[in-house]
Amino acid sequence: MDFKVHISTAGDITFDVHFEWDESMGVPDQKLETRLALVNLDVYVPRDEQFSHIKFSDFLAFAVKSLGQVQLPEIASVFDKTINEFHSFKDILKLYKEGIKLPDNRAMSKLKQCISWELLKELIRSDGEGFLKFPLPDVIKEDKTAWRTDEEFAREMLAGVNPVVIRRLQEFPPTSKLDPEVYGDQNSRIRWKHIEKNMNGLSIDTALKQNKLFILDYHDTLMPYLERINTTNTETYATRTLLLLQDDDTLKPLAIELSLPHPEGLKNGATSQVFIPAEHGVEGSIWQLAKAYVAVNDSRYHQLISHWLKTHAVIEPFIIAANRNLSVLHPILKLLQPHFRDTMHINAMARHILINSGGVLEVTCFPAKYSLEMSSAIYKNWAFPDQALPLDLLKRGMAVPDSNQPHGLRLVIEDYPFAVDGLEIWSAIKEWVCEYCLFYYHTDEMVQSDSELQSWWTEL
Questions:
Q1: Are the CB atoms for 327 and 452 separated by under 8 Å?
Q2: Cis peptide before 385 (omega within 30 of 0)
Q3: Cα–Cα distance between 41 and 348 in angstroms, integer?
Q4: Which one in 2, 135, 272, 413 has a CA-CA gap of 20 to 30 Å to 75?
């Protein structure tokens, strides 16, 4: 029997799948196929890849809190004509302020003593902490309006959730790497006239030579998908943000470029608007909106690319190949296991509720149903050697070689917490791994003659 199945993906790509079915195998029946319910986390992973009971309880506690924050708005949306929107900043703060206060009495204390599961101990608290309540973000803990400042906007590119994209600008105006035959002219429209008054007296040439100009660039990442993304219920711009490093080692934004595909087609390039800092009036409000679009792109890129793709997904081939080729007593497997722990389990659940069709990422991220297609395209440019932190910093221009420095390089921004702390951790791990490996492999020939190790690397 010959079967053909016509499949349409979320990214509007269609293809046919052909397969043969031997009659001795019985008659395929679509009624026999079942799917897990959305909230069912009983996904299969090998037993040695499963969460510990503490890890799983911790995961569930956060999941229940997240669902609690989702369900109430879902119910409210039945009576709301502007669903999926916050009506005010007070609505946002409610996510962190409100919760169900539990009584602090003898009965509740006795109940807690009887519950040994970490999940319930985390959810049912009587120390004044609200039930199903998230902790208040540090950025607004002291000042609820701190996020509005240009200083905080720029600081988060170095010390926020996604400090791994900002890079030093080495040419002005910024250029695009997109194929002009396909996408037309996608180069930046930011010019000297836009940034001159905020350059602190520096010329472009001087600022470039002194490593003073930086950019957070999501233009080329988003532009190929914008036309399709903006036909969904979420819309965004491709963004470029230009920043200046000041004498006090802090960044300040110089300009934000918001771009859309040309209305007559991508081959005609982009239509772009450039916005510059302003504090008051209409210009001040527009500037805040421009920063908001940048922040949305940055946070969603973090979740989809920096977090899911470049942290969780890319490590799976290493885990699978290691388990297939390295024996349980192999020293390299022993070395890697702490870094592999829980990854396969969390990834399995992510495929079920996070990155699946109609899942959390598609609902909350602006790429919507094109999320995985976009992440797959970005993965094509992923290279394992480039993931070493020192090489990444050099590649992005955030550091320059310097043999006199502890790590062999010098940061161009001294107050870069991700890099400062990261290099300390990187060096400690490198020192430990080198000492560990030298204990088992004294020469290159010993590495080459290790058949298990060679099989592992060959599979990769």
A1: yes
A2: no
A3: 9
A4: 135
Largest CA distance in the chain: 82
Both tokens of 208, joined, read 């470039």
- pLDDT, position 144: 80
Do 119 and 61 touch, CB atoms closer than 8 A?
yes
The single-letter code of the amino acid at 117 is W
Map the chain to HEC letters: CEEEEEEECCCCCEEEEEEECCHHHCCCCHHHCCCCCCCCCCCCCCHHHCCCHHHHHHHHHHHHHHHHHHHHHHHHHCCCCCCCCCCCHHHHHHHHHCCECCCCCHHHHHHHHHCCCHHHHHHCCCCCCCECCCCCCHHHHCCCCHHHCHHHHHHHHHHCCCCCCCEECCCCCCCCCCCHHHHCCCCCCCCHHHHHHHCCCCCHHHHHHCCCEEEEECHHHHHHHHHHHCCCCCCCCEEEEEEEECCCCCEEEEEEEEEEECCCCHHHCEEEEEECCCCCHHHHHHHHHHHHHHHHHHHHHHHHHHHHHHHHHHHHHHHHHHHHHCCCCCHHHHHHHHHHCCHHHHHHHHHHHCCCCCCHHHHHCCCHHHHHHHHHHHHCCCCHHHHCHHHHHHHCCCEEECCCCCCCEEECCCCCHHHHHHHHHHHHHHHHHHHHHHHHCCCHHHHHCCHHHHHHHHHC
Residues with Cβ within 8 Å of 169's Cβ and at least 6 positions away in sequence, in order, are 208, 213, 214, 215, 242, 397
Q: What percent of the chain has pLDDT over 90?
A: 52
Residues 6+ away with beta carbon under 8 Å from 201: none
Q: What's the predicted TM-score (pTM) here?
A: 0.78
Average pLDDT of the residues in 254-280: 94
Q: What amino acid is encoded at 71 in this protein? A: Q
Residue in the structure block whose two tokens are 């003898």? 106
Mean pLDDT value across residues 215-241:
91
Q: Is the pLDDT of residue 219 over 60?
A: yes
Cβ atoms of residues 361 and 303 within 8 Å: yes
Q: Which residue has the tokens 């250029």?
A: 175
d(CA 382, CA 308): 13
**CA atoms of 248 and 255, how far apart (whole Å):** 20
Q: How far is Cα 455 from Cα 347, in angstroms, rounded to an integer? A: 25
pLDDT per residue as tens digits for the range 29-45: 544 444 444 445 566 66
